[in-house]
Design a protein that fits this description.
0% helix, Thrombin, subunit H, six-stranded antiparallel barrel, 48% strand, mainly beta
């Protein structure tokens, strides 16, 4: 799992930006569960990755009220581990 912070969130577009990217082993099309304070709050699919941030598609059924700018989120990969560089 990987701890990160929400940089921005756009519920109307279903997008969320996190402060982790390629430097942390994130790759496009990876899927993650999001956890806030040990509680599952939803799922995301990575759509765009830069060195130090990524933009993800928020999956339906996610608890947007638990997610806000600056919120610390733990990303748990659906399968396997985050690739080490």
């Amino acid at each position: 799992s990987l701890k990160t912070r929400v940089i921005s969130i756009s519920p109307s577009q279903g997008l969320i930006t996190f402060s982790v990217g390629q430097d942390s082993g994130i790759r496009a099309e990876q899927g993650f569960s999001m956890r806030v304070n040990e509680k599952d709050v939803g799922k995301i699919s990575i759509s765009l990755v830069d060195n130090s941030f990524c933009i993800a598609q928020i999956q339906p059924g996610s608890d947007l009220d638990a997610l806000g700018r600056g919120q610390v989120v733990t990303l748990v990969p659906f399968t396997g581990k985050i690739s080490a560089r």
